[in-house]
Amino acid sequence: MSDTVSEKPVGGTDLDTPVMQRLSTLDRFLPVWIVAGMALGLLLGRTFSGLNDALDTVKVADVSLPIAIGLLLMMYPVLAKVRYGELHTVTHDRRLLVSSLVINWLLAPALMFALAWIFLPDLPEYRTGLIIVGLARCIAMVLIWNDLSCRDREAAAVLVAINSVFQIVAFAGLGYFYLELLPGWLGLDQESLNVSVWTIARSVLIFLGIPLLAGFLTRLLGERAYGRDWYETRLLPRIGPIALYGLLFTIVVLFALQGDTITRQPWDVVRIAVPLLVYFAITFAGSFLVGHRLGLGYPRTATLSFTAAGNNFELAIAVCIGVFGVTSGQALAGVVGPLIEVPVLVGLVYAALWARRRFSFSADTAPAVHR
Q1: Cβ–Cβ contacts within 10 Å for residue 302, how many?
Q2: Contact 157, 82 (CB under 8 A)
Q3: Which of 113, 158, 212, 349 is 20 to 30 A from 368 (CA-CA)?
């Protein structure tokens, strides 16, 4: 998910304030907004039977225009937050760079692939949706979790920028590899998926490329005209909620069109959530252990861990809808992610702060934790 309000959690870095109170109001109640969007969507689906035909009147890349607009609005604020000018600073810590790239782009997608096949062997659409979620690396909400856990903000900004660039370059190829090539090599039943590289690339270019360009230009022109402080403390808090509005609009439409399937098979939502919970736990704990063993110090260890554990659910939802359609099981699998991400990662913030008190870290320069 993305930070929907500001670069800084409510309450700044005062660690005497409980973690949930340091989240912005919109972020704190994100699961509530998502559940409300789901309920509204189910109600609309039962009330207006011709909604699907109405939405399909005008399309963009095989996606209805209203949904396409919602997806673009969902992505734009996320990418306007990235500090693209700080990409070069990552060379100062090769250990952090290499470990982040390996975990985010090799190990984490492979882990999600394995979990999807282990937990959803009989549900190919949901399985595919989870694999796509595993490929969409976190590029925004990680800044919130880092702030809450006394992280290295500069390192987080650099890793977020790198993930943004990598998603443009590598997402389509990795999607084709994990959805088509690897299952075939392993002799797994692919249910005749037939996903082409171009189909995935087109969705990524539209729903990531356009908002990426818009976000880059917004930051470039905004900082050039008014400076970074104005941009991050005045402009970003104003455009940030747009991401939530776009997400909620997409969820309302998706559940309006999938209402019958969801109400008939509520257990499917639980089955999607279980591998996501296992994924969050393994990626966070594994990354934290790697950072500790490499001697990165607590701030950068926390940064590495939250960057690895988080996912860009906006992009995953956009790709699933663009490739498979808004009524697909793949799209539903993408929506389950943000429903559980906030409470799970808030719990991991507490786990990180506990680990900092419990274990010794080299070069630990983060603010002291108040007990």
Answers
A1: 32
A2: yes
A3: 158
Taken in order of first residue, the domains within the chain and their CATH numbers are: 30-358 (1.20.1530.20)
Q: How far apart are CA 275 and CA 152, in angstroms?
A: 29
C-alpha 371, offset from chain centre:
31
pTM (predicted TM-score)? 0.76
371 residues of the chain, pLDDT tens digit each? 444 434 444 444 455 556 566 666 776 677 788 788 888 888 887 887 777 677 767 666 667 788 788 878 877 887 888 777 766 665 577 888 899 999 999 999 999 999 999 999 999 999 999 999 999 887 666 666 666 666 666 677 778 778 877 888 888 889 889 988 899 899 887 655 556 677 777 777 887 788 889 989 999 999 999 999 999 999 998 998 888 888 788 888 877 876 666 677 778 889 999 999 999 999 999 999 999 999 988 888 988 998 899 888 778 888 888 888 878 889 889 888 877 877 888 788 888 888 888 887 765 444 444 33
DSSP-based three-state secondary structure for 326:
coil
Which of 352, 260, 280, 351 lies closest to 45 in space, CA to CA? Answer: 260
- Token couple for 355: 């680990």
100-106 long-range Cβ contacts below 8 angstroms, 24+ apart: 100/159, 100/162, 100/304, 100/307, 100/308, 101/162, 101/166, 103/283, 103/286, 103/287, 103/290, 103/304, 103/308, 104/137, 104/163, 104/166, 104/307, 104/308, 105/137, 105/166, 105/170, 105/174
3-state secondary structure of 118: helix
Most distant CA pair in the chain: distance in Å? 61
Tokens 């659409």, residue located? 125
Whether residue 169 contacts residue 201, with contact meaning beta carbons closer than 8 Å, is answered with no
* Dist. CA 315–CA 216, nearest whole Å: 17
- Classify residue 311 by its DSSP letter: B
CA distance 23 to 7: 11
